[in-house]
Specification:
The chain is built from 19 helices and 8 strands. The chain is α/β, with parallel strands linked by helices. It folds into 2 domains: 233 residues, Rossmann fold, CATH 3.40.50.620; 173 residues, no CATH class. It has a 6-stranded mixed β-sheet with strand order 3-2-1-4-6-5, with helices on both faces. Strands 7-8 form a two-stranded antiparallel sheet. A hairpin with a 2-residue loop joins strand 7 and strand 8.
Length: 494
């Protein structure tokens, strides 16, 4: 649609929405990100249904879902949450069949739990582990539940052909496969269809509609426009259902810590264009600090892959998860920045911490249970940065060993064997495993765990591990430099 919208255009699209709504009992799922396209979609649906006779309005459920990755830009997160609360209130007052849902990733699979907890290297295009965990999985899980309960589902999305030539080609491909008018098959999920009411609209059409028609849940579309004007690149973060969807890093409403782009021009522009957003500068600096060049990032990572395996590529070992020192450094920096923006940023930002207490508790559990770091450094780091006591009644820590014992062990290992870089890790893990089994009725499996610990840490250092690899792997298969989804790769050793 290259021309300006007319009242007849809106009337036609309203009638189409009403017609499809009343055509069957299949529930609708509207994706809402808080951006211009998804706002236009929810607004169109809301207004169309509210114009139906009272007896027809509650014909079937309309679910509005918004996925919060927990690393959204604090400004946008506050905007979206405020909008969702207004939606819920307006729905109650108007008696519409709209149900509002804020979706989040599973707490043990958030960005910080994986990066700081498990040590996953920062996401890159060849290792884009964040998109599925943070965006796709929460949305798909909700849609799957809807399909399971109703048999089918219709996704009402703000996708437009004018977004890109690639998007246009994909949408037209699915149009050719339609079995129902206006409903394209969902390529990523069976028994679901995609309805794109504004697929022919341009950016100007979207803004014209938002400026000329009042927001039905009493949010300000003019404030939304102001947010877009705050940064130069245009776009929004759509409802992501598959990895083919463009990264939110190319859009206004993406993750503030997104590492899939070399430079976050949107955040930089927001800071430059509005002096009241100067408190966001540490966020930009920290994001840039995480995105290091390959060699710098390689030094921050263990020379072994997850589980202690070795992978060989172009004459050297492929590095795996972040080291203990790197993980602790990143946690401290993140907490310091969170404290800063709470003090310097607007008051509503305090309701959207950069990392939640629930995530911190999961990270602590991973460090204690999986990595056997029984000195339990997370509460100490938290208390040093925030000045507050870290409460975690669900996890008491090691019964026998703590910071004091860790310090003694560390000094002993360094004094006796200064060249053995993995000795502290091996000894602390062996002690932690033994102490844990000492509390169990059955000690079945302890030998296997002890042997695995010795195997992963019996190297003196990286050079020793490389020599060992080459000596015992006569036919060396070169693996990819990049990590796999679980930081596994090709295992040729041990």
């Amino acid at each position: 649609m290259s021309h300006a919208l007319t009242k007849q255009d809106i009337t036609n699209i309203t009638k189409l929405i009403q017609q499809l709504y009343l055509a069957d009992s299949i529930p609708w799922v509207c994706g809402y990100s808080g951006g211009k396209d998804s706002t236009a979609i929810v607004q169109l649906v809301w207004n169309a249904i509210s114009q139906l006779p009272a007896k027809q309005r509650n014909y079937k459920d309309i679910h509005v879902i918004s996925t919060d990755t927990l690393v959204e830009s604090p400004v946008v997160a506050a905007w979206v949450n405020k909008s969702l609360e207004k939606m819920k209130s307006a729905v109650t007052d108007s008696n519409l069949p709209i149900k509002v849902h804020r979706l989040t990733p599973k707490i043990d699979n958030t960005f910080w739990v994986n990066l700081i907890g498990r040590g996953y290297p920062f996401p890159r295009h060849s290792f884009r582990w964040c998109t599925s965990r943070l965006k796709i999985d929460p949305a798909n899980h909700f849609i799957e539940q809807t399909i399971s309960a109703a048999g089918e589902a219709i996704l009402v999305l703000g996708t437009r052909k004018a977004e890109s030539t690639t998007r246009k080609a994909v949408m037209e491909n699915y149009e050719r496969r339609r079995v129902r008018e206006h409903l394209s098959p969902n390529g990523s999920m069976l028994n679901s269809y995609v309805f794109s009411p504004i697929q022919e609209w341009t950016n100007d059409n979207v803004w014209q509609y938002l400026m000329q028609y009042a927001n039905p849940w009493n949010n300000s579309n003019k404030e939304l426009l102001a947010m877009y004007r705050g940064a130069s690149p245009d776009g929004e973060c759509p409802l992501v259902l598959d990895t083919a969807t463009p990264s939110c890093g190319n859009s206004r409403f993406g993750c503030w810590v997104c590492t899939l782009v070399s430079e976050d021009k949107s955040m930089a522009a927001m800071i430059q264009n509005d002096e009241e957003k100067a408190w966001m500068l540490p966020l930009l600096d920290f994001r840039n600090e995480i995105v290091a060049d390959n060699e710098t990032d390689r030094k921050r990572r263990d020379f072994r892959r997850k589980g202690g395996h070795l992978t060989y590529h172009r004459g050297r070992l492929v590095h795996g998860p972040y080291t203990k020192e790197t993980r602790e450094f990143l946690l401290r920096r993140l907490l310091e920045i969170n404290l800063y923006i709470n003090e310097e940023g607007p008051k509503e930002i305090e309701e959207h911490p950069l990392i939640t207490l629930e995530e911190l508790r999961v990270i602590r559990k991973i460090w204690l249970d999986e990595k056997h770091e029984f000195e339990d450094s997370l509460p100490k780091i938290y208390e040093e940065v925030t000045g507050k006591i870290f409460h975690d009644h669900s996890l008491p820590g090691n019964k026998y060993f703590g910071q004091t014992e860790w310090n003694i062990l560390n000094e002993t290992c360094k004094d006796l064997y200064p060249d053995e870089e993995l000795l502290l890790e091996m000894q602390s893990s062996l002690l932690d495993i033994e102490s844990r089994y000492n509390l169990k009725v059955s000690r079945k499996g302890i030998i296997k765990n002890l042997e695995a610990t010795i195997q992963r840490a019996f190297f003196k250092n990286e050079n020793d591990a490389l020599e060992f690899y080459l000596k015992y792997n006569t036919s060396v298969d070169e693996a990819s430099e990049e990590t796999t989804d679980e930081i596994g790769g090709y295992y040729k050793c041990c």
